[in-house]
Amino acid sequence: MLKITSWNIRGLNNPLKQKEVYSFISSQKLQLMGILETKVRATNLCTTFGKCFPAHWSYSHNLGSSSVARIVVAWDPQCLVVDVLQTSDQMVCAKVQIVASSKILYLSIVYGSNSFVERRRLWAEMRVFNSVCGNSPWIMVGDYNIVRARSERLEGFDSNAVGDFNNCLDDLEMEDLPTKGFGFLGQTKGEVWGIIRVSLIGL
After folding, report:
1. Which of 6, 38, 42, 56 has minimal Cβ neighbours within 10 Å of its Cβ?
2. How far apart are CA 29 and CA 46, in angstroms?
3. Which residues pair with 34 in a beta bridge?
């Protein structure tokens, strides 16, 4: 069973958040974690991520596509072999091999822009990456900054933007993945840290 998570942490420069990420990985026994909106600059990468992840873990990021690392993907190399294939300001895509079974899957960690126009570029990137995956499983996790249905949002519903998103997922023949686990909301001293989504995936 592969256990992964994505967390829109809304800034990872706070030492308390770094400690919480480390504790969360240990308590949930994760094999892979995507962290979004880290706001970590190049000069702080090693120091910050060294406090977030177990010492033997590996990580990659999309700093080359932005002034800060908007997306970080970290994994346990004892469980997974991860080959990052492409990065952009809104997505990191990788080929993942599960060590125990040698099974292959593709993974995209997504952090969509707040801009309707910029998200259209993300949908185009997804369509291109689809050709890389072939018939292998492809899992996308993260924060798309858009919903699929009106019932998922209380206000600010944009039917055109939602239509674009759903059309992309239809073109890719993607479906919401049935998962087990819980959603977590990290918070300390009244500061909301963002939504954490944990997924259990049987492969």
Report:
1. 56
2. 23
3. 6, 73
Q: In one letter, which amino acid is 93?
A: C
Secondary structure in 3-state letters for the chain: CEEEEEEECCCCCCHHHHHHHHHHHHHHCCCEEEEEEEEECHHHHHHHHHHHCCCCCEEEECHHHCCCEEEEEEECCCCEEEEEEEECCCEEEEEEEECCCCCEEEEEEEECCCCHHHHHHHHHHHHHHHHHHCCCCEEEEEECCCCCCHHHCCCCCCHHHHHHHHHHHHHHCCCCCCCCCCEEEEEECCEEEEEEEEEEECC
Nearest-angstrom CA–CA distance, 168 and 203:
25
pLDDT tens sequence across 31-88: 999 999 999 999 999 999 999 999 999 999 999 877 899 999 999 999 999 999 999 9
CA atoms within 13 Å, Cβ hemisphere of 127: 14
List pLDDT tens digits, range 129-165. 999 999 899 999 998 888 777 665 545 667 888 889 9
Q: Tell me: the pLDDT tens digits for 81-128? A: 999 999 999 999 999 999 999 999 999 999 999 999 999 999 999 999
List Cβ neighbours of 76 (8 Å cut-off, separation of 6 or more): 30, 31, 32, 54, 56, 57
Count Cβ atoms below 10 Å from residue 182 Cβ, excluding itself: 9
Any bridge partners for residue 50, and if so which?
none
pTM: 0.85
